[in-house]
Write a structure and sequence with these properties.
By secondary structure, the chain is mainly β. The protein contains two helices and twelve strands; from the N terminus they run ααββββββββββββ.
Length: 260
């Protein structure tokens, strides 16, 4: 699973090496005469520290969009790695691809797919594919909010932690058809301050009690034409975890973003 993820991420990076204008993706979508352009941003941090212990901390996030006359295509990738004293403390990542077709319609269809892993929590692999209908609740120059409702197929492979077997426990594999919904908010607070957040709610059709909530967001402060300071967060709540893990997981990160 990790080899597939890294390969796709490298392909994504090469595709995004296109000269384009730095603009907020959602803001540009509002300009009817802006088509056939690439937009995107990279955020990365790398820290190697050696004091009483030696730690290696690496994180990378990228998002890009190709805006067309009738359809938009989005590419989002994230990777986090933390190692201390030779022990892996954090290792997770995901790659999300989405297309919004017939975007000029008030209610427009979307298709999406995602690859994901989180070794520390025991999620060895997760992939999904689905579609939904997107509805723009409010669409203005500074503030935009949208909702989506649809369905998806999800496959997951989890590994239970077992200290007696050297942290190698049994595997749990799940496959569900799920209701998939989201709420997206994009707010250009000023010419230099930007905020966006998207939250997801997913639940199997046959087991409505086993729902999952997640959210990712960014707060950007523009420093120059191509650089911004970014605070990003992610949140994950599992009402009925597949294996014995905490129901709530979250991360908060600060870094520099290079936009094009």
């Amino acid at each position: 699973m990790q080899r597939i993820f890294f390969s796709l991420l490298l392909v994504l990076i090469s595709v995004m090496g296109v000269n384009a204008q730095i603009l907020n993706v959602e803001a540009v979508r509002l300009q009817e005469d802006t088509t056939n352009v690439w937009l995107g941003a990279f955020t990365g941090t790398y820290t190697l520290q050696s004091q009483q212990t030696k730690t290696l901390d690496f994180s990378f996030e990228t998002n890009a969009a190709h805006l067309g006359q009738n359809a938009d295509y989005y590419f989002i990738g994230n990777m986090n790695f933390l190692k201390g004293n030779g022990e892996q403390l954090i290792s997770n990542g995901y790659l999300h691809l989405r297309s919004n077709i017939y975007k000029i319609w008030k209610i427009s269809p979307e298709i999406f797919t995602q690859l994901q892993y989180d070794n520390v929590r025991g999620l060895k692999e997760r992939y999904l594919i689905g579609s939904d209908a997107r509805y723009n609740l409010k669409e203005g120059e500074k503030f935009k909010t949208s909702v989506g409702l649809g369905a998806m197929f999800e496959h997951e492979l989890w590994q239970e932690e077992n200290e007696e077997q050297g942290n190698i426990g049994s595997f749990r594999e799940t496959q569900f058809f799920k209701i998939a919904s989201y709420l997206s908010v994009n707010w250009d607070i000023s010419d230099k301050l930007f905020f966006n957040v998207i939250s997801y709610y997913q639940v199997p059709f046959e087991r409505l009690s086993q729902y999952r909530l997640s959210a990712t967001g960014n707060f950007n402060i523009k420093l120059s034409e191509h650089w911004a300071f970014t605070t990003s967060f992610s949140y994950w709540y599992e009402n009925e975890p597949i294996i014995a893990i905490d129901k709530v997981n979250y991360t908060i990160q600060n870094g520099l973003t290079l936009s094009f």
